[in-house]
Amino acid sequence: MAFDPNQQEKTPILKRLRAALARFQVSRSVLTSLGVLLAIGLWVGSGVFNGDANTVEPAQAIKTRSADETPFSVIAREISARDTTSIVRLQGRTEADRIVTLASETSGTIVNLPIPKGRRVQKGQLICEIDAGARAAMLAEAKAKRDAARINYEASQRLFEKGHISKSQRATSKANFDATAAAVKMHQVELSRTRIKAPFDGILDQLPLKAGAFIAPGQPCGTLIDKDPLLIVAHVAESQITKIRNGAPASAILATGENVTGFVRYVAESPSLATRTFQIEVEVENKDFLLRDGVSADLNIESARVRASQIPRSALTLDDTGRLGVRVLEGEVVAFREVAILSDQSEYSTVTGLGETEVVIISGGDFTRAGQRVDAEIQTEASVKAAGAM
User: Beta strand pairing status for 374-379 and 72-80?
Assistant: First the structure.
């Protein structure tokens, strides 16, 4: 093969070109990274030297509404104060006026229980009869001795008047007669104790023994309850006791659903040492005995008469310090009035603390504050009554 000098010369040049290209491929990623860093540096630098043009301003706070801006719209109502009876509200329970345990005063076997428990009884009606045993015979013997002693005493009286016996002999016969008469009374009482009777009208609530059982002195034969009148007993705090007086009208809602009325018949003079509360009693009529003993009751007692205002319950609100009150209008400006609740109904509350006539915000007041001007639609008492009649 013939030698070609030109071919030999080209081979080293190609090798050098290939080596340079390989080095360039290896460093190209490095150069790209350097270019990116240089661009970021130039961008940051431009923000430093041209801050007035490109600096991002901080977010502005939401502008608060001032009192001079467009007034907020509310609905208000003219409300006038009127004489109202203050009510003291208490929790109580019903109690029978009298609960008596009918205990035996003698011993013996029970032979008759004529009335079942739970029945109404009349005063003097037999509740429990005990076997009389020899008591009747002993009474008969005592009566015989008494009659004999009476004859002796009458004879001695005639003899004394005639002067046949002394004064002491007459006194002795009189003493014998008195002793036998006393013995008769004693045996009569003992015999009567075998028949236990109702001391008043009521309900026979319990009969702990059965016929044929032995009963001893002091052992109960039955329990009699007098529920007419029925009492509602409650306890009043020291701060409220001056608001309650004897004879004050009262009403109550019992846990069994009845609504009753009555009056305060007793107010304790001194409090309980344990609770520092005063006991009171409200008397309620219960002639048919339908009201039960021991039932919980929500008690309302009328106290002094005060000037108060009836407002919609929706008007009640709290101020920034947590005081209960309502927002009212003084001209076109909102003001806050602190109030105290006397009573609550389903839609209205009776409160004290407002003036004789106030314009009370009843809708939209929660979005206002004291001192703020508002645009109010004012309702009068006449317009409210007319709307209610329609």
Answer: parallel
Which neighbouring-strand residues pair with 158?
none
Does CATH number 3.30.70.360 belong to domain 89-94+227-305? Answer: no
- Rounded-to-integer distance, Cα 61 and Cα 59, Å: 7
Return the CATH class of domain 132-193. mainly alpha
Pair of tokens at residue 8: 């030999």
Locate CATH 2.40.30.170 in the chain.
89-94+227-305
Distance CA 174, CA 151 (A): 10
Residue 162, token pair as written in the block: 């005639």
Alpha-carbon gap, residue 150 to 165, rounded angstroms: 17
CATH number for the domain running over 72-81+316-389: 2.40.420.20
Q: What is the DSSP letter of 270?
A: S
Can you give the pTM of this predicted structure? 0.60
Give the tokens for residue 219: 């052992």
Evaluate whether 227 touches 97 at the Cβ level (below 8 Å).
Answer: yes
Are the beta carbons of 240 and 215 closer than 8 angstroms? no
Q: What is the pLDDT of residues 258-312, one digit of tens each?
A: 999 999 999 999 999 999 999 999 999 999 889 999 999 999 999 888 889 999 9
pLDDT recorded at residue 390: 46
Task: Render pLDDT for 242-273 as a digit per residue (tens, 0 to 9).
Answer: 989 999 999 999 999 999 999 999 999 999 99
The Cα–Cα gap between 211 and 119 comes to 18
Residue ranges of the chain assigned to CATH 1.10.287.470 = 132-193
User: Residue 218 — left, alpha, or beta (φ > 0 → left; ψ -120 to 50 → alpha)?
Assistant: left
First to last CA, the chain: 129
Q: How confident is the model at residue 163 (pLDDT cuts 50, 70, 90)?
A: confident
